[in-house]
Amino acid sequence: MSMAVGGGKGNAIADINVTPMVDIMLVILIIFMVITPLLQKGVSVDLAKTKNPREMREADRDDAVVVAVTRDAKIWLNSDQIMVKDQLGPKIQDVLASKVDKTVYIKSDRRAKYGDVVDVVDIVRAAGVDTLGLLTTRVEGQGSEQ
């Protein structure tokens, strides 16, 4: 008996079955859709809108020090929540101790109380920060007014 190669009823199917590949791609897509919002740095706040903001690209760097004030007066240092305002100064000093650039960026929800933001600015200044940046977003869709 000899085995016949090709021909006959036992032919291999030449079509590629893409169903398993599609299943895997859909699972990967769902995983990325779930994880991507979690990768956002720090806490998300609704920033105030301005017509002429100054570009502060350094605030987007991974090693940037960002203090966020939420609408309900919670304070975040990068992605860590500060439970007591008095802890903010020492924590900023610890973070800036190893840095040459002693710049801190403050982002505040536009509905946060002015007094809460002023308190945070005072604490940051008292911690020995050289430069302070206030983060805002540009007003979109309006022409330049003079």
Q: Gist?
A:
27% of the residues lie in helices and 18% in strands.
Write up this protein:
With 146 residues, the protein is α/β, with parallel strands linked by helices. It has a domain at 49-138: 2-Layer Sandwich (Nucleotidyltransferase, domain 5). The protein is 27% helix and 18% strand. The longest helix has 17 residues, at 19-35. It is elongated. 14% of the residues are buried.
Largest sheet: 5 strands, mixed
- Count the strands? 7
Average predicted confidence as pLDDT: 82
H/E order of the elements?
HEEEEHEHEE
| End-to-end distance | 95 Å
Give the number of helices.
Answer: 3
Overall outline: elongated
Indicate the CATH class of the domain at 49-138: Alpha Beta
How does CATH name the architecture of the domain at 49-138? 2-Layer Sandwich
β-sheet strand percentage: 15-25%
Rg result: 27 Å
Question: Which structural category fits the helices and strands?
Answer: alpha/beta
- Summarize the amount of helix as a percent range: 25-40%
Major sheet: order of its strands? 4-3-2-5-6
CATH topology of the domain at 49-138: Nucleotidyltransferase, domain 5
Q: Segments where pLDDT lies below 50 for 5+ residues? A: none
